[in-house]
Amino acid sequence: MLPRRPLAWPAWLLRGAPGAAGSWGRPVGPLARRGCCSAPGTPEVPLTRERYPVRRLPFSTVSKQDLAAFERIVPGGVVTDPEALQAPNVDWLRTLRGCSKVLLRPRTSEEVSHILRHCHERNLAVNPQGGNTGMVGGSVPVFDEIILSTARMNRVLSFHSVSGILVCQAGCVLEELSRYVEERDFIMPLDLGAKGSCHIGGNVATNAGGLRFLRYGSLHGTVLGLEVVLADGTVLDCLTSLRKDNTGYDLKQLFIGSEGTLGIITTVSILCPPKPRAVNVAFLDAVGPEGKDHRGAEPGWLRVQVRPLPPCGAALRHRD
Ligand SMILES: Cc1cc2nc3c(=O)[nH]c(=O)nc-3n(C[C@H](O)[C@H](O)[C@H](O)COP(=O)(O)OP(=O)(O)OC[C@H]3O[C@@H](n4cnc5c(N)ncnc54)[C@H](O)[C@@H]3O)c2cc1C
């Protein structure tokens, strides 16, 4: 669930949310604000390591040779420009800031595998990042971890128009996937406010719930298969598209909600439900525990009133 919004959030932060943004490269709202130039009056985000008593583990630091190796693995996908690195170093709530000097933008699972193998051999720390919309700071480095962005891994690999099974790369933006399957009379089994920016890989890594949770269930049920690259570069292929698969342990479940701690999700196979023929919006009216409401319901009772959305104005007038 989305945590309750603290009352103290500054107004400049509330003017935009990641849901309105595009991919990593074109941020809006708070993402745009945390670029190189802080807007006047925008406080600088303190470094996480100065704010919390955290200790850097004995990882190596990135050398020129490492950068050359990364450039060979992902030509054109190595970002070291300090200005370009400011945004991906800060979480969108602007509470945490790392000081990574390198961001890598692979396009394929194979490239992710080569990157992680190199980092494993060199003892370099890596922080996976999707749309950087997470609420708990897991998407940004604490120290100088290498940021591995899935932004360029954004291809739909297959869609089955009868079963509704979608197979796509982890960096696909949720809203774009929604559009893709809706054109084919299906919907994504999850929907949330960050959909314009968050990636399906990030959704799986955080086991995101969202607005359709009660109707279509958790990602533990709708994700049919995953391809994951482990920390040493091994590619774990659990990418089945079977709705029932009892061939051994269901390893993919470990990665759903693992926040990138066990490996990098590179491909997702997900079951999309058929698009409903109609959607109705209901207004729920609950009586508080303190006393009766103005229509005399007893305390503690939940009064539920279902009203179709159109005409919304009429429904609201009726309430008064
Ligand atoms: C406006 C708004 C509304 C929201 N509503 C809901 C809601 O209704 N329900 C809900 O459950 N959540 C909600 N959230 C939180 C939501 O779950 C996350 O924002 C989203 O799922 C994270 O996706 P992301 O691509 O932005 O991941 P990021 O924020 O980039 O990363 C999140 C975590 O996953 C890891 N990660 C990212 N990609 C991968 C990958 N490919 N492989 C392995 N690890 C990876 C990161 O290291 C990090 O630990 C909301 C957030 C916002 C901003």
Automatic annotation (TrEMBL):
Its cofactor is FAD. InterPro entries: FAD-bd_PCMH, FAD-bd_PCMH-like_sf, FAD-bd_PCMH_sub1, FAD-bd_PCMH_sub2, FAD-oxidored/transferase_4, Oxid_FAD_bind_N. GO terms for molecular function: FAD binding; oxidoreductase activity. It comes from the Eukaryota. Gene3D superfamilies: 3.30.465.10, Uridine Diphospho-n-acetylenolpyruvylglucosamine Reductase, domain 2. Residues 1-22 form the signal peptide. Residues 96-275 form the FAD-binding PCMH-type domain. Pfam families: FAD_binding_4 (PF01565). Keywords: Oxidoreductase, Signal. PANTHER family: D-2-HYDROXYGLUTARATE DEHYDROGENASE, MITOCHONDRIAL. This is D-2-hydroxyglutarate dehydrogenase. It comes from Homo sapiens. The lineage of its organism: Eukaryota, Metazoa, Chordata, Craniata, Vertebrata. The gene is D2HGDH.
